[in-house]
Design brief:
The protein is α/β, with parallel strands linked by helices and 374 residues long. The protein folds into 2 domains: 230 residues, Alpha-Beta Complex (Quinone Oxidoreductase, Chain A, domain 1); 120 residues, NAD(P)-binding Rossmann-like Domain (Rossmann fold), CATH 3.40.50. Helix content is 28%, strand content 28%. The protein is built from 11 helices and 18 strands. Strands 3, 5, 6, 9, 10, 17 and 18 form a 7-stranded mixed beta sheet that branches. Strands 13-12-11-14-15-16 form a 6-stranded parallel beta sheet, sandwiched between helices. Strands 1-2-7-8-4 form a 5-stranded mixed barrel. Helix 6 links the parallel strand 12 and strand 13. Helix 4 crosses helix 5 and helix 4 packs across helix 10. The longest helix is centred in the middle third of the chain and has 21 residues.
Length: 374
């Protein structure tokens, strides 16, 4: 039963948010030993193999997404199931699983939306820093430590709700599997589920980080879709070109050239970027925004242009995905050689390098840094 036994784990705990940069100097994330409860009913103990460093982690570190502290960070991970709580009948010890950052309760009206709306109960538990069934399984010197997005994957082990993971075959390497649970579901899902990209259309991605590049790779998996990359950093444009993007632009250059696309994915996370994405969307097109700007940012749009040109603006959380439905699709695309997600890997690091990794991400120097824990 939950809480009756504990184990010692090593994890990266955020103790302060909004520290001064560089984080490698201010050291807001402490790598230290914690106590982890055994899995309760409906939960799993997972030995983490690989965890990806994502902007959703950085947004907690820099304070743009306030969360209860202390918090063990990390939400994009792959690992091996080592113990199973009561009531879980479809998972076996030894199976590889991918964590997903929004559990779906399958009971609320949002879960009946086919992925369009985030689960109400999962969103509430994420905001509270708990698991889906409530409470924390993490403790540090007797103090409760919050979970990050129901996962807390920057650790040697994690206890997660069964509904926070998808089982994958061992033939999918952990390095590939880990990225499927966030970068791919968010960026790729924005293209397929939210934008509903069709053959013969043009896809433009604004913001070429891990999520944006996942959207680029998804567009390139189509045989007859033109893919355009837009970013303020020329080195990101060069990476997109190497990935296979047909055109690349700086934002101002794209706007000045009158570039238009049927589906535009905004993956920057700023009000100005959303305005640019809308301006780059063709009549009849869909602007899909997946970036997470600060809560006090606002955009100015022309409602007339939406009506007169028949355009749509779509908010997409986790790519409007249902992980159990969509993750196998992307894995199959990877198996077929149409979705080389390994191109996203920019570095493999140790857990001790987590503060420096946040600096690299904040400076725009990394697509996906993978923490190797196996």
């Amino acid at each position: 039963m939950q809480g009756e036994t504990t184990m010692k784990i090593l994890g990266a705990v955020l103790v302060r948010s909004n520290d001064l940069r560089p984080y490698a100097t201010s050291n807001p994330i402490h790598v230290q030993a914690l106590d982890l409860d055994s899995p309760g009913p409906g939960e799993l103990l997972v030995r983490i193999e690989i965890a990806g460093v994502c902007h959703s982690d950085l947004s907690v570190v820099n304070g743009s997404r306030p969360r209860p502290l202390p918090m063990l960070l990390g939400h994009e991970a792959a690992g091996i199931v080592e113990a199973i709580g009561d009531g879980v009948e479809d998972v076996e010890v030894g199976q590889r699983v991918v964590t997903t950052f929004l559990p779906r309760c399958d009971d609320c009206r949002a879960c009946a939306s086919g992925g369009r709306a985030p689960c109400i109960n999962g969103s509430a538990s994420n905001a509270a820093g708990t698991l889906l069934r409530g409470g924390s399984r993490l403790h540090l010197d007797g103090v409760e430590v919050s979970h990050h997005l129901g996962v807390s994957g920057f650790a040697t082990h994690a206890v997660v709700d069964r509904r926070s993971v998808v089982i994958v075959d061992h033939s999918v390497p952990a390095r590939i599997a880990a990225m499927m649970g966030c970068a791919v579901l968010t960026g790729g899902g924005a293209v397929i589920n939210s934008g509903q990209l069709l053959s013969g259309e043009t896809l433009l991605v604004l913001g070429l980080g891990g999520v944006g590049m996942s959207a680029i790779l998804t567009g390139l998996a189509y045989n007859d879709v033109r893919v355009i990359g837009v970013d303020a950093r020329t080195e990101k444009l060069e990476s997109a070109r190497k990935f296979g993007a047909h055109e690349v632009y700086l934002p101002d250059d794209a706007l000045a050239a009158g570039v238009k696309a049927d589906v535009v994915v905004e993956a920057v996370g700023s009000a100005k970027a959303l305005e640019s994405a809308i301006a780059l969307t063709a009549p009849g097109g869909r602007t899909v925004t997946v970036g997470l700007p600060a809560s006090n940012e606002y955009s100015t749009i022309s409602p007339l242009s939406l009506v007169a040109e028949g355009r749509s603006i779509i908010g997409s959380y986790m790519g409007s995905s249902i992980p159990s439905r969509d993750l196998p699709i992307f894995i199959n695309m990877w198996r077929e050689g149409r979705f080389p997600v390994e191109k996203l890997i920019s570095a493999e690091i140790e857990l001790s390098g987590i503060n420096h990794a946040m600096d690299q991400l904040a400076d725009g120097n990394a697509l996906r840094q993978l923490i190797v824990l196996e």
